[in-house]
């Protein structure tokens, strides 16, 4: 397992996906409209990477793994009734090797989990102000959400020195990251766990008020499970969560509910994960992440000296003793961007748009997978009518 490497994944005839193929970089961005297969692609990727761990985990929760009836396993992984996304003509190539249905269901010796998956529906993991356990979800819920929620629950209960205080915590984020989250998301608020109706739930302490979770802003609520996930990956070693086992992180739509300044703060934490040796895959609808990808690749290919200084300017961070190593070695990393889009037959195909070249004749590349299309058109219309 030490030699395991996630290089590429190609999928054909899988649910809405006609054919997509992704070669993974150190950071890989997936863009595209809703219902374009990004989540299905990532959930399948997670299952392929961690199949033995997942099957062993399901058996722990008394699920029956029957090779003769793979549909039951697929329903647990993707959600009840979703087994039909696999068709007789479905083809899967992982690291250029064909994976059959028998291969995907076959049980082997359980291994350590390698991929930490942060799902788009993460708010459901704490919908009533506290992380749910795995079995509280019904069968319509994909495995990645159930497992993520269980991870949050066990981490809060077993890994935090003071389980009553969730933010700020001194030893789980670098000071510059903690400050950016405070400045752009919590605005001086202290996040605690307080008893309510016999259960401990999130509250925000600010201005002599104790604000219940359901009255927080949408961005603050969306950010909470993401924050705890960052604690898992960036905090000190824990007997409950073996962070050193992980090599890959998937984050779906990290921008949900957040202002661009807060998204920039999230991006800094992603770069910290990269600095710690993790490879990150992100699905996004945010132009902020594409702006960064374009700037990163442009600066990387330039002949400029002291390229890291450009990133300090980009993120408006002063270079101090505590931030001196924030961007070290970053330009040795590879950033890839793929666009998932429906073609004329309604099926999804992928396009490598990593160059993000606004002058490209390929509209998928020049329009950044549709994310810059409206702003470009608005500029053209204003130029035409303002003359």
Topology:
Elements lengths: L7 E7 L2 E7 L3 E5 L6 H12 L1 H10 L9 H9 L7 E9 L2 E2 L2 H5 L9 E4 L24 H17 L5 E3 L7 H12 L3 E7 L2 E8 L2 E4 L5 H17 L13 E5 L7 H16 L3 E6 L2 H15 L5 H8 L20 E8 L5 E5 L10 H4 L6 H13 L2
Parallel strand pairs: 2-14, 3-12, 3-13, 6-11, 11-12
Antiparallel strand pairs: 1-2, 1-4, 4-5, 7-8, 8-9, 9-10, 13-14
Helix pairs in contact: 5-7, 6-8
N- to C-terminal distance: 63 Å
Q: Helix and strand string, N-terminal first?
A: EEEHHHEEHEHEHEEEHEHEHHEEHH
**Number of helices, counting only DSSP H or I runs of 4 residues or more:** 12
Q: Low-confidence stretches at least 5 residues in length (pLDDT < 50)?
A: none
Mean pLDDT: 90
Oligomer state of the chains in this structure: single chain
Biggest sheet character: 10 strands, mixed
What overall form do the CA principal axes indicate?
Answer: globular
Overall number of strands:
14
Strand content: 15-25%
Portion in helices? 25-40%
Characteristic terms for this protein:
single chain; 387 residues; alpha/beta; 10-stranded mixed β-sheet; 4-stranded antiparallel β-sheet; 36% helix; globular
Describe this structure in words.
With 387 residues, this protein is α/β, with parallel strands linked by helices. It has one domain (8-160, 240-385). The protein is 36% helix and 21% strand. It has 12 helices and 14 strands. It has helices spanning 38-49, 51-60, 70-78, 101-105, 143-159, 175-186, 218-234, 260-275, 287-301, 307-314, 363-366, 373-385; strands spanning 8-14, 17-23, 27-31, 86-94, 97-98, 115-118, 165-167, 190-196, 199-206, 209-212, 248-252, 279-284, 335-342, 348-352. Strands 5-4-1-2-14-13-3-12-11-6 form a 10-stranded mixed β-sheet, sandwiched between helices. Strand 11 (248-252), helix 8 (260-275) and strand 12 (279-284) form a beta-alpha-beta unit. Helix 5 packs across helix 7 and helix 6 packs antiparallel against helix 8. The longest helix is centred in the middle third of the chain and has 17 residues, at 143-159. It is globular and about 65 Å long.
């Amino acid at each position: 397992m030490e030699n395991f490497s996630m290089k590429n994944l190609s999928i054909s005839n899988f649910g809405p996906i006609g054919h997509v193929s992704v070669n993974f970089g150190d950071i890989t961005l997936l863009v595209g409209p809703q219902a374009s297969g990004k989540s299905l692609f990532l959930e399948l990727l997670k299952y392929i990477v961690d199949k033995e761990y997942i099957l062993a985990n399901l058996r722990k929760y008394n699920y029956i793994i029957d090779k003769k009836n793979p549909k039951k396993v697929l329903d647990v992984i993707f959600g009840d009734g979703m087994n039909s996304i696999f068709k007789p003509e479905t083809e899967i190539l992982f690291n250029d090797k064909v994976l059959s249905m028998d291969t995907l269901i076959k049980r082997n010796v359980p291994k350590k989990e390698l991929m930490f998956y942060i799902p788009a529906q993460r708010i459901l993991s704490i919908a009533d102000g506290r992380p749910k356990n795995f079995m509280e979800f019904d069968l319509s819920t994909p495995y990645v959400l159930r497992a993520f929620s269980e991870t949050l629950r066990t981490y809060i209960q077993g890994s935090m020195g003071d389980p009553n205080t969730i933010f700020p915590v001194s030893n789980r984020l670098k000071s510059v990251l903690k400050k950016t989250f405070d400045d752009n998301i919590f605005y001086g608020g202290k996040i605690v766990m307080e008893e309510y109706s016999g259960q401990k739930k999130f509250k925000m302490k600010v201005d002599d008020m104790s604000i219940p979770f359901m009255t927080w802003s949408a961005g603050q609520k969306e950010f909470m499970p993401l924050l705890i996930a960052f604690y898992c990956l960036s905090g000190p070693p824990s007997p409950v969560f073996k962070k050193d086992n992980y090599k890959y992180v998937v984050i779906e739509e990290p921008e949900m509910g957040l202002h661009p300044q807060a998204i920039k703060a999230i991006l800094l934490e992603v770069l910290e994960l990269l600095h710690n040796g993790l490879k990150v895959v992100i699905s996004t609808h945010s132009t902020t992440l594409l702006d960064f990808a374009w700037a990163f690749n442009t600066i990387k290919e330039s002949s400029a000296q002291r390229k890291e200084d450009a990133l300090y300017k980009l993120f408006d961070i002063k270079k101090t003793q505590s931030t001196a190593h924030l961007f070290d070695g970053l330009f040795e990393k590879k950033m890839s961007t793929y666009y998932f889009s429906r073609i004329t037959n309604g099926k999804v195909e992928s396009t490598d748009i990593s160059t993000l070249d606004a002058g490209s004749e390929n509209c998928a590349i020049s329009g950044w997978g549709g994310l810059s299309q409206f702003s470009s058109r608005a500029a053209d219309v204003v130029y035409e009518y303002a003359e």
